[in-house]
Write a structure and sequence with these properties.
By secondary structure, the chain is an alpha/beta fold. 43% of the residues lie in helices and 13% in strands. The protein has helices spanning 14-48, 66-77, 107-123, 134-140, 177-184, 202-213; strands at residues 54-60, 91-97, 128-131, 144-145, 162-163, 187-191. Strand 1 (54-60), helix 2 and strand 2 form a beta-alpha-beta unit. The radius of gyration is 27 Å and the shape is elongated.
């Protein structure tokens, strides 16, 4: 003899069965569907999105337009290699809105720029940094290297950096007048890369030399 709990719903009619489905089974189906969708999205993002092979930093109180960033990234990518073998050579230019003069629009943006830069200098491999104030950057950066990739030994900031105009690969790009004027006064430096015991990875330093040679 089958025992049935007093609390068990009676499913003797079609209407009762449908009501049971909507009340008890359908919410579980929705939840499982959402969970599977999230898993699929995470997997697609992890394996289906191209990842950067190189990174370049831009440190300035003002930021470059998205169009200029894309032009600089594409110009640099022409000289790089597909290091992560995902079928695409991708250079990512990271912008750090940071002023070394004490003049800035928002203290929150300034603090965020300082925090982001400090963190990335310890964790991220960079080909080079394009900076608005090379002198102050040199004074505040303890991961700086000479332009040859060696440890500095008392060189001035002029000796540790070069004019943005000397990055041959970036010259002649159709930049906006505002961005061109901003970059014209910038200088370029290189820093240690956290993943390399010698201070620079071979791939990053090779791209650096290619950007100089054009």
């Amino acid at each position: 003899m089958t025992h049935q709990s007093k609390d068990a719903p009676s499913l003797s009619t079609r209407k009762q069965k449908m009501q049971h489905f909507w009340d008890y089974i359908f919410p579980w189906c929705v939840g499982i569907g959402i969970a599977l969708g999230v898993v699929f999205w995470l997997l697609a993002d992890a394996f289906g999105t191209a990842r950067s092979d190189y990174r370049i930093g831009f440190v300035c109180a003002a930021t470059l337009s998205d169009e200029t960033v894309e032009l600089l990234e594409a110009a640099a990518a022409q000289h790089g290699s597909d290091l992560n073998r995902d079928g695409t050579v991708l250079v990512e230019l990271d912008q750090y809105p940071l002023s070394y003069t004490g003049e800035y629009d928002s203290p929150y943006t300034q603090m965020a720029g300082v925090s982001m830069l400090s963190s990335d200098l310890q964790d991220v491999d960079f080909v080079c940094f394009i900076v608005e104030n090379a002198e102050k950057f040199c004074q505040s950066c303890d991961t700086l290297l000479t332009l040859q990739g060696t440890a500095p030994s008392g060189e001035s900031y002029e000796q540790l950096s070069l004019s943005y105009k000397e990055l041959t690969a970036f010259q002649g790009l159709p930049l906006t007048a505002q961005d061109a004027a901003l970059l014209e006064n910038c200088r370029v430096l290189i820093t240690k890369n956290p993943s390399s015991s010698t201070g620079r990875t071979d791939a990053d330093h090779a791209l650096w030399l290619d950007l100089l040679a054009g």
